[in-house]
Amino acid sequence: MKYDAVIFDFDGVIVDSGFDGFQWALEERQRLIEENDWDIDLQKIDPGVFQPHDVELARVLEEAGVTWDQLKEMEKAVAERKVEMFTTGEIQMFNDAEKIIGELECPKAVVSNAYNDYLAGMLEGLGIKHHMDFWVAPRIQDIRNYRQRMKPEPEMIEEALEKLKTRNAVMIGDQIQDVLAARKAGIDSIYIDRNGDVEPKADHSVESLEEALDIIG
Description:
Elements: E1 5-8, H1 23-36, H2 42-45, H3 57-64, H4 68-88, H5 97-103, E2 108-111, H6 116-126, E3 134-136, H7 146-149, H8 155-164, E4 169-173, H9 176-185, E5 188-192, E6 204-206, H10 209-216
Parallel strand pairs: 1-2, 1-4, 2-3, 4-5, 5-6
Helix pairs in contact: 1-4, 4-6
């Protein structure tokens, strides 16, 4: 094999949680805002809060009048809604994911910007947890520091490489953040877009995990 290990992103690579552009997540946050009668305008903090961004997170929240506890409650609600949608079949695993993960004989890990509190349960529910040697994601309890752990920061990939005991790994992701995090960690990246888009900063671009398997060797 060309690589000794494979690191997968979760959303957009293994599960199709972005089937509607993550509108469901915004709706869940808005539901919680209205339910608690919070004076929060999501447009003022998205994507400054919910996507990796160069702006300091504390400043975004302060300017928008959002407390850390409110942010934590919103993210907890989104994580729980994701698990619910998986249970009802609204969120499904991509058709090629289980097959490819099962066929890969090298060590495997999942590094996700989703929340660790629910990731292990979803891997278990998908029936692929036993295929993974390691998984890591930010914790909701540490939400004050989660921006420092989110990709494109390389911290979680570095943890995975240490657990997998190799530097010769490849990251498979569907976002530029995955590609940049891999580059910062000093490993190759495979960008997957099932509509055929190419990411020039990635080492490889594919339309399916079957194509990625050919690259991995």
